[in-house]
Amino acid sequence: MNTRGYVAQRASARLVPFEFERRELRSRDVALDVLFAGICHSDIHQVREEWGPSLFPMVPGHEIIGVVSAVGPDVTKFEVGDRIGVGVFVDSCRTCEHCRAGLQQYCAEGMTPTYNGYERDGTTLAMGGYSTRMVIDEDYAVHVAPSLDPAGAAPLLCAGITLYSPLRHWGAGPGKKVAIIGLGGLGHMGVQFAHAMGADVTVFSHSPTKESDAVALGADHFVATSDPTTLANLTQRYDIIVNSTSADIDLNPYLKLLALDGTLVIVGLSGVPVTLHQELLLEARRSIGGSQIGGMVELQEMMDFCAANDITAKVEVVSADYINEAWDRTVASDVTYRFVIDVATM
Ligand code: NAP
Ligand code: ZN
Ligand code: ZN
Questions:
Q1: How many beta carbons lie within 10 A of that of residue 216, not counting itself?
Q2: What is the Cα–Cα distance from 160 to 18, expressed in whole angstroms?
Q3: pLDDT of residue 337
Q4: What's the gap in Å between 96 CA and the centre of ligand 3?
Q5: Ligand 1 atom nearest 39 alpha carbon
Q6: How many other C-beta atoms lie within 10 A of the C-beta of residue 236?
Q7: Quick one: which atom of ligand 1 is closest to the CA of 270?
Q8: pLDDT at residue number 229
Q9: Which residues have CB under 8 Å from 60's CB, separation 6+?
Q10: Distance CA 130, CA 346 (A)
Q11: Cα–Cα–Cα angle for 55, 346, 330, nearest 5°?
């Protein structure tokens, strides 16, 4: 199927228009016309090879909302016309313990990423959602409630699930103090989720101008980290702190803010190794955890949670020819709070 998209032909290249073919439908595949694709900071890290070598040509995009345009003969989950979402992976081994538990993001063979990786045939380079059409096995897509604004729903497929999953896993809820470091694409979803789950929510931001937005999104407290002394009064306070920043920040001052048995969860992935002072873990039995997106079961659960609680990302919808500027502005933290590409402009 002829498809238009935007591609980086080599590392750090600007994205340019591109035409390529999608596979014909297999028996359990669905085809979708993409409506909106979110711009995740991970798209930028990978084209710029900030996580190590990448595969090119690369059509990024793993926050995808579309409408089903065709279904294979054995598809049972979707019908033509359904609103559908595709996230960060498009396949996995399906047989390992984690896949069988619905935790495909931790597949023992590695998940098959939506782009910057090979499909399970080992030779077809996966092409992501900055494109007009996609073909996906029905098991790796979710239903998206028609009540959700489709542009605002696109970032749920990565930014949303990446915060929803750890907040659930580490028990965010009434009586818990949760802090989110970084009010970006991921962070602003974390604030909305933690608030909806009933936790007391604090935002740590290096952008003082974001305070009113943080409060509007559900934060109970806002701390501007541009003045490092502001952290000194907050020691031993939080049960869960989630670092959602894209930059290489010093996490040691935040460890001190964790209460007894508190956990610092790392979801931001600058690609730079971190140095941590051990005594900050020992002195209050603190833990450090990491979390990677979410599996298919939880992805659908989060979509339904968003529909029930009327939660979407706050987005700036842009046309395809603005992608490169949008990337530069994302790196500069100059976006409220996610750029989403209107794929009709491709
Ligand atoms: P984003 O929209 O660019 O937001 C990152 C936020 O980090 C910014 O809004 C900013 O928040 C803060 N920040 C940026 N530069 C900073 C600096 N120099 N010092 C301090 N804070 C800074 O990025 P995103 O799309 O949310 O992604 C965030 C990170 O998560 C990326 O590294 C991405 O690759 C990673 N990620 C991980 C997963 C996963 O599965 N774990 C999934 C998706 C993305 P303030 O202005 O409020 O300080
Ligand atoms: Zn992402
Ligand atoms: Zn597996």
A1: 10
A2: 28
A3: 96
A4: 4
A5: 25
A6: 13
A7: 32
A8: 86
A9: 6, 8, 15, 43, 46, 47, 115, 116, 128, 129, 130
A10: 9
A11: 60
In the block, tokens 């390992």 appear at 96
171 sits in the region (left: phi over 0; alpha: psi -120 to 50; else beta) called left
With the most atoms of ligand 1 within 8 angstroms of its CB, the residue from 333, 334, 339 to mutate is 333
| Radius of gyration, alpha carbons of the chain | 20
The DSSP line for 236-248 is T-EEEEEE--SS-
HSE toward the beta carbon, residue 77, CA cutoff 13 A: 18
Which residues are within 8 A (CB) of 5 and not within 5 positions of it... i.e. 6 or more apart? 17, 18, 19, 20, 59, 127, 130, 131, 132, 346
Say if CB 313 and CB 190 are below 8 A apart. Answer: no
Six token digits for residue 232:
């000194």
Atom of ligand 1 nearest to the CA of 186: 26
pLDDT the model gives residue 232: 87
Residue 66 half-sphere exposure toward CB, CA atoms < 13 A = 30
**Residue 297 Cα, ligand 3 centroid: separation in angstroms?**
14
For 42-95, the pLDDT digits (tens) are 999 999 999 999 999 999 999 999 999 999 999 999 999 999 999 999 999 999
Which pTM does this prediction carry? 0.97
Answer yes or no: are the C-beta atoms of 306 and 312 closer than 8 Å: yes
Pocket-testing residue among 89, 191, 245, ligand 1, by greatest number of atoms within 8 A of Cβ: 245
Determine whether the shortest distance from the Cβ of 186 to ligand 1 is under 6 A.
Answer: yes
Residue given tokens 């980290």 in the structure block = 225
Which stretches of the chain score pLDDT less than 50?
Answer: none
